Amino acid sequence: MKRFEHVRHRAPLPLPQPRPLILAVSPMRSGVNLSRLVRLAGCAGITRMLYNGPQRIDAKIARDAIDVVRVDRRRSLAPPIQELRDQGYRCVGLEQTTNSTCLYEYRYERRTVLLIGSEREGLTDKLLRLVDDTVEIPVYGQPASYNVVTATAMAVYEYCRQFPAG
Amino acid sequence: MKRFEHVRHRAPLPLPQPRPLILAVSPMRSGVNLSRLVRLAGCAGITRMLYNGPQRIDAKIARDAIDVVRVDRRRSLAPPIQELRDQGYRCVGLEQTTNSTCLYEYRYERRTVLLIGSEREGLTDKLLRLVDDTVEIPVYGQPASYNVVTATAMAVYEYCRQFPAG
Fold it and tell me: What chain A residue is nearest to B8 in terms of C-alpha separation?
């Protein structure tokens, strides 16, 4: 008898309610990265993203997430983030900054907007003025920063770990 | 005064020794995914990968990791994994299987070979017979599985969280 047998097409775990985690994404240089973020969101049970760039979402990359993640396109992320903060969401920037908290130590609020910067420039000063906290993922070697989707995957994983039941 | 100021080009954290975490990667359909795994490894302080496919590593994607991560190409992953196990490494398969452990609960051994399956087929039965444990990342929505690089990023993050100093 095999000890570990591959389980194909395991059904996703149902969440009692949509996760109150919203991804707010700065303009991506690459529609591939945007599409990969949509797939990540779908798998993680995230149902809402904010985005302010022109890139299209590639269904071959985002897969079924394209049907379950609502992506609101805005000319600027600042107004919807401010609205969400007024509603009680905590806005967390994923960026290497002064006064950042290591992601290992960070305790998320359930209602969180996770704010993601562009591939090269990261988060703008304007957006950094809106965040309640910034979290930073330790890097131990070269190149000195994770790809934007990789870093977002880690930050989303940490959230799911803290709120495994949603 | 700004509360959070972007720190550009923060130097990686030095590790007192190379991480005793080795990525063993099944044939990828895509050289892009392989190259992204190399970048992930470089950033995480991983210095060694095993790979048994023909794809080339794209330096535009892997960036400087191409110089710091040694990628050993093998015709089969089984013999080097068995050698590493004989040396005391624990072999952990990242796969949805029977008897898997949720990554949230899993306690890594420091000396670990993290075994990654192909994009579509995952880990073969042959490789699953070699692993000591399998870990699985909960999925909460569609599509029902994470992209291979995304899942690997989460598993590597969890390792680094448990061994922040290497």
Answer: A96
